[in-house]
TrEMBL record:
Species the sequence originates in: Arenimonas malthae CC-JY-1
SUPFAM superfamilies in alphabetical order: Lysozyme-like, PGBD-like
InterPro entries according to UniProt: Lysozyme-like_dom_sf (IPR023346), MltB-like (IPR043426), MltB_2 (IPR011970), Peptidoglycan-bd-like (IPR002477), PGBD-like_sf (IPR036365), PGBDSf (IPR036366), SLT_2 (IPR031304)
Domain Transglycosylase SLT: 25-314
Keyword tags: Signal
Full protein name: Lytic murein transglycosylase
GO BP terms: peptidoglycan catabolic process
Signal peptide location: 1-21
GO molecular function, one term: peptidoglycan lytic transglycosylase activity
Domain Peptidoglycan binding-like: 335-390
Length: 403
């Protein structure tokens, strides 16, 4: 679950940091009266004893990455065959639970499981940052300290109430954690007890996490029984100047302008408000989206994220891939293909770490080096073109002629 967008250049972040690293105790001592006023007892506050500043979360806070992920790369990794198969297995495994959640909260099983799959790969990846350390650091330094203090205090109250165990609590650099990556303040407001044990444990309880996700979507305006939207086809010469999530028109108006569903099924001529999305422009896939898309978007305010959730939910229901290709001659890679690419980079002597399908800085540097060697455009991007090039074994060194 996203908190806010990073915006300032890295140099501003580094200039703002104090020279001394290490101990957070002086800052936390100054925050103690605020914590007491927020209802946090001494025993709960002691979970912060001995914490040291984590410079990496400060870099993440203010660092504007140069590497931008095209939407076709983003979806290639998030809506791949592995995640679809795993999600369909989870639908069967938790069918009774998901049916109960749908009765209680009105959100269908495929959507709930799609959020779970994108946020934590169905509980496999919760994040790697020590949660209290991250939030304590961000409460004392950098931008938005008041925001992060609220999240720190919310986490401590959740520990104090017995909903969470402090030991081993990890999450994202910004403090999102659990199966579906709630921020602590959202956890406090939205989480529900899905297994009836008296706790709201989004880390250790799948029923709690999935029920809480459905509750979040319901409170964000989810409308039971309605679709999130459809992939659509634009007629030749279509004027797409009116598009975007906030440019809503009655569905009948879009129909009158020649828009049709990409799967050939009829669009109802209704007054339901719909928005036209063109995430890659007129040459890429187009979507008409409804109120339920907005509920998904509220979970993480990024168009590519919401489309990934929506499309994955369709695939989990048995739908097929998008009908129109993305406007690129070099598509992105699935996670299996990313792992293959990393293996090929290791085989060529690049020290990129383990093969995990996560394309980080070292993998991108190695890709850029290979692109330069092969005479390809150098952008460090993991794509079909570089994968195909590296699948070709390197030429054996020429042997000198025999004398």
């Amino acid at each position: 679950m996203k908190t806010f967008r990073v915006a300032l250049p890295a140099l501003l972040c580094l200039a703002a940091l104090p020279a001394a690293a290490g101990d957070l105790a002086p800052c936390l001592e100054r925050l103690r009266p605020q914590a007491r006023a927020a209802g946090i007892g001494d025993a709960s506050w002691r979970h912060l004893d001995g914490l040291e500043r984590d410079a990496s979360v400060l870099e993440a806070l203010d660092y504007q990455p140069e590497f931008r992920t095209p939407i076709w790369d983003y979806l290639a990794g998030l809506v791949d065959d592995e995640r679809i198969a795993d999600g369909q297995a989870r639908l069967l495994e938790h069918a009774a639970l998901l049916a109960r959640i749908e009765r209680e909260h009105g959100v269908d099983a495929a959507t709930v499981v799609a959020v779970w799959g994108v946020e934590s790969d169905y509980g496999r990846t919760f994040g790697s940052k020590a949660l209290l350390r991250s939030l304590a650091t961000l409460s004392c330094e950098g931008r938005r300290q008041p925001f992060f203090r609220g999240e720190l205090f919310a986490t401590l109250r959740l520990i104090q109430s017995g909903d969470l165990d402090a030991a081993g609590l990890v999450g994202s650099w910004a403090g999102a954690f659990g199966h579906t990556q709630f921020m602590p303040s959202t956890y406090a407001r939205i989480a529900v007890d899905g297994d009836g044990d008296g706790r709201r444990d989004l880390v250790g309880s799948i029923p709690d996490a999935l029920a809480s996700t459905a509750n979040y979507l319901r409170k964000s305006g989810w409308r039971t029984g309605q679709p999130w939207g459809y992939e659509v086809t634009l007629p030749p010469g279509f004027d797409a100047s009116v598009n975007g999530r906030n440019a809503r028109r009655p569905l009948s108006q879009w129909l009158s302008r020649g828009i049709t569903r990409a799967d050939g099924k009829p669009l109802p001529a209704s007054d339901t408000p719909a928005a036209l999305l063109l995430p890659a422009g007129k040459d890429g896939p187009a979507f008409l989206v409804f109120r339920n898309y907005d509920a998904i978007y509220s979970y993480n305010a990024a168009e590519s994220y919401a489309i990934a959730i929506a499309h994955l939910s369709d695939r989990l229901r048995g739908g097929g891939p998008l009908h129109r290709a993305w406007p690129t001659d070099d598509p992105g890679l699935s996670r299996a293909q990313r792992r293959e690419l990393q293996g090929l980079l290791l085989g060529r002597g690049h020290a990129i770490g383990e093969v995990d399908g996560m394309i980080g800085a070292r993998s991108r540097e190695a890709i850029a080096a290979e692109q330069a060697r092969l005479g390809l455009p150098v952008d460090g991007r993991a794509s079909q073109r570089i994968l195909a090039a590296l699948r070709t074994p390197p030429a054996a060194p020429s042997q000198p002629p025999a004398e």
